[in-house]
């Protein structure tokens, strides 16, 4: 073997060994706990969105029947949820101040809170975006989102997230085909745009989203297995003008491990990034409203 080729081969092998020995991502996800939230209120249940305060003690939870709950979470010294105290609840209203009824007009799904206290909500059925100055205020309507492939009744804009600049990001629950990416919409300054697209893995459908304190977009997805219930997964990615980068799947549960997780909030608990998820019990006695938490350590 000529010396030049021998030197090239040795250099390549050295490079391969260094690359093979390079440490992988140091991110680890650890289970924190599950709290079953119960109430006798007839409006309780069907939660599809959740927001958690920066200190982890305050919450807003949105049902898919246009009810908004808010209050506080009692945690033990280890940060586990021990009780939920409801400070108030309100039925969201339309732009004329009339309470929204469950169904086509009142199928509220995505929830995001602005730094100024504005409550942002996406709706299925009549696909739209609305904002509320407070839980008792009439809705402020915004331009209709673009009509996208796959957007039908019960498969509209279910996930909603707001970034530090106040821009809103959402995507439909279905893309029209299992091998078609999900279009990612951005809403800012009163206008919609197609910001990017997110890879779709067959059967996994997005139901919740939030931006973490690390700048990543976290996406909660679910799969339905019939009598075996639901499985869930969480993946995160950075959004760039060229599309999502640094994507990784952080969590993938087994069927029946948890209930129908639909809402996701991401915050920092002092030790790592906390993922708080809430389940939609579909107002069925065989299902539960669960608050499931994991901690991500980078």
TrEMBL record:
<feature type="domain" description="Phytase-like">
    <location>
        <begin position="43"/>
        <end position="283"/>
    </location>
</feature>
<keyword id="KW-0732">Signal</keyword>
<dbReference type="InterPro" id="IPR014567">
    <property type="entry name" value="UCP031900"/>
</dbReference>
<dbReference type="Pfam" id="PF13449">
    <property type="entry name" value="Phytase-like"/>
</dbReference>
<protein>
    <submittedName>
        <fullName>Esterase-like activity of phytase family protein</fullName>
    </submittedName>
</protein>
<feature type="signal peptide">
    <location>
        <begin position="1"/>
        <end position="26"/>
    </location>
</feature>
<dbReference type="InterPro" id="IPR027372">
    <property type="entry name" value="Phytase-like_dom"/>
</dbReference>
């Amino acid at each position: 073997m000529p010396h030049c080729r021998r030197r090239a081969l040795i250099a390549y092998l050295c490079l391969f060994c260094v690359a093979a020995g390079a440490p992988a991502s140091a991110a680890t996800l650890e289970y924190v706990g599950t709290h079953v939230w119960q109430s006798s209120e007839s409006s309780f249940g069907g939660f599809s969105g959740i927001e958690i305060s920066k200190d982890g003690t305050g919450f807003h939870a949105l049902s898919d029947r246009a009810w908004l709950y808010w209050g506080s979470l009692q945690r033990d010294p280890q940060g586990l949820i021990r009780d939920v105290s409801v400070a108030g609840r309100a039925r969201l209203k339309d732009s004329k101040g009339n309470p929204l009824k469950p169904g086509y007009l009142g199928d509220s799904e995505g929830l995001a809170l602005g730094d100024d206290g504005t409550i942002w909500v996406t709706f299925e059925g009549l696909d739209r975006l609305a904002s509320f100055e407070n839980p008792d205020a009439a809705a402020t309507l915004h331009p209709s989102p673009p009509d996208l492939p796959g957007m039908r009744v019960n498969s509209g804009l279910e996930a909603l997230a707001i970034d530090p600049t106040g821009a809103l990001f959402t995507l439909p629950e279905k893309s029209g085909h299992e091998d078609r990416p999900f279009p990612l919409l951005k809403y800012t300054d009163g206008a919609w745009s197609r910001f990017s697209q997110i890879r779709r893995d067959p059967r996994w459908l997005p139901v919740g989203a939030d931006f973490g304190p690390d700048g990543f977009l976290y996406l909660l997805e679910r799969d339905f297995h019939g009598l075996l219930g639901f499985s869930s997964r969480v993946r995160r990615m950075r959004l760039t003008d060229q599309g999502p980068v640094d994507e990784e799947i952080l969590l993938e549960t087994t069927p029946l491990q948890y209930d129908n997780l639909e809402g996701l909030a991401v915050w920092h608990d002092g030790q790592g990034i906390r993922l708080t998820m809430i389940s939609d019990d579909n107002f069925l006695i065989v299902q539960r409203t669960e608050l499931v938490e994991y901690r991500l350590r980078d």
